[in-house]
Design a protein that fits this description.
By secondary structure, this protein is an alpha/beta fold. The strands form two sheets. Strands 2-1-3-10-4-11 form a six-stranded mixed sheet. Strands 7-6-8-5-9 form a five-stranded mixed sheet. Strand 1, helix 2 and strand 2 form a beta-alpha-beta unit. The longest helix has 13 residues. It is globular, with a radius of gyration of 20 Å.
C-alpha cells in the first residue's frame, strides 16, 4: 500500500505544469489567481504574458499553450472557428476598464484636462493591431476628436504592460493603460489617473479558451473551473474588472 501511495504522489508532483498564455493587462490579477489556486491544488500553472495578437499567432503556429486568456473576444472566436478550441470551453472571464495615467506629480488631478488640451510631450498607447486596449484607445481619441492632433506624440508599446513602463519610466507624460495595472500596485495614487468612461469605446470583453493541446489536461480544466468560482471572480473584481461571467457555448467541461 505504501508503495502504491508513493507512486501516486510521485505522479502528482512530477506532473507537467499547465501552460497558460495571458494578455498583458491581466498579469497582476492572474498572478494572484494562480497563488490562490495552487494553495489547494496539486496542479502547477506556468504563465506567459504578452499581447493577445502575438499569442494568437503563436497558437496558430502550434505553440503548446493549454489555456489562452485573451484581452478580447475576436481572437478566441477566430481560434474556435479554426478548430483549435475545445467545444463549450469559451467564456468571458472579465470586462476591462481603460485609464489614462501619468507618473508626473505635477499632473495630479489634471489628467483629463492635460489629455484634452494636448498639454503633454508624449502619449503612450498599446499597438492597436496587437492589443485590444490599444484598439479601444483609438476609439477614445476619436470620440474626443484627438486622433489627428495627438498622433505625432504617440509612443506605441507592444502591449499595455510596455505602455505602463513607458509612463513609469518617464518616457511618456501620459499613457492609456488597463485600470487593473494601476490597482495592482500601491505606488499609483488615485489622483494620478483618469478612468475613461465606458461609453467612449466598445466594451473590452475578455474571453478565455481551452485549447486542443489541453484535450487530456485535467490541470487545465481544474484551473478553468477555479476561474468560475466566486473566490476567483471576487479577486478579478478587486483589480478593477467588471465580472459578468458568461459562456459562449454552454459550459460543460
Amino acid at each position: 500500500l505504501g508503495l502504491i501511495l508513493f507512486s501516486v504522489f510521485t505522479l502528482c508532483t512530477d506532473a507537467k505544469p499547465v501552460h497558460v498564455a495571458v494578455a498583458a493587462n491581466f498579469s497582476n490579477s492572474m498572478k494572484r489567481l494562480v497563488t490562490e489556486f495552487e494553495k489547494t491544488s496539486d496542479y502547477q500553472i506556468a504563465l506567459s504574458f504578452g499581447s493577445s495578437g502575438k499569442f494568437y499567432a503563436q497558437i496558430k503556429q502550434g505553440a503548446p499553450y493549454e489555456l489562452f486568456f485573451s484581452a478580447d473576444q475576436a481572437k478566441p472566436d477566430a481560434l474556435q472557428k479554426d478548430g483549435l478550441v475545445i467545444a463549450n470551453s469559451r467564456f468571458t472571464y472579465a470586462t476591462g476598464r481603460l485609464a489614462v495615467w501619468s507618473a508626473r506629480p505635477d499632473f495630479a488631478n489634471k489628467i483629463e484636462t492635460k489629455l484634452k488640451e494636448g498639454a503633454f510631450n508624449k502619449l503612450a498607447l498599446a499597438n492597436p493591431k496587437l492589443a485590444p486596449y490599444g484598439a479601444a484607445t483609438l476609439e477614445v481619441l476619436k470620440y474626443l476628436s484627438l486622433l489627428e492632433s495627438t498622433q505625432s506624440k504617440w509612443v506605441r508599446g507592444e502591449n499595455v504592460a510596455q505602455t505602463y513602463q513607458f509612463v513609469s519610466s518617464g518616457n511618456a507624460d501620459l499613457g492609456f493603460v488597463a485600470l487593473s495595472q494601476l490597482l495592482g500596485t500601491k505606488k499609483v495614487k488615485q489622483d494620478s489617473y483618469w478612468l475613461v468612461p465606458d461609453y467612449m469605446h466598445h466594451a473590452i470583453k475578455q474571453d478565455v479558451v481551452l485549447l486542443r493541446s489541453a484535450e487530456k489536461s485535467q490541470g487545465a480544466r481544474a484551473f478553468l473551473d477555479f476561474i468560475h468560482s466566486n473566490k476567483a471572480q471576487k479577486i478579478i473584481a478587486e483589480y478593477g474588472y467588471l465580472v459578468t461571467l458568461s459562456s459562449h457555448a454552454g459550459q460543460s467541461l
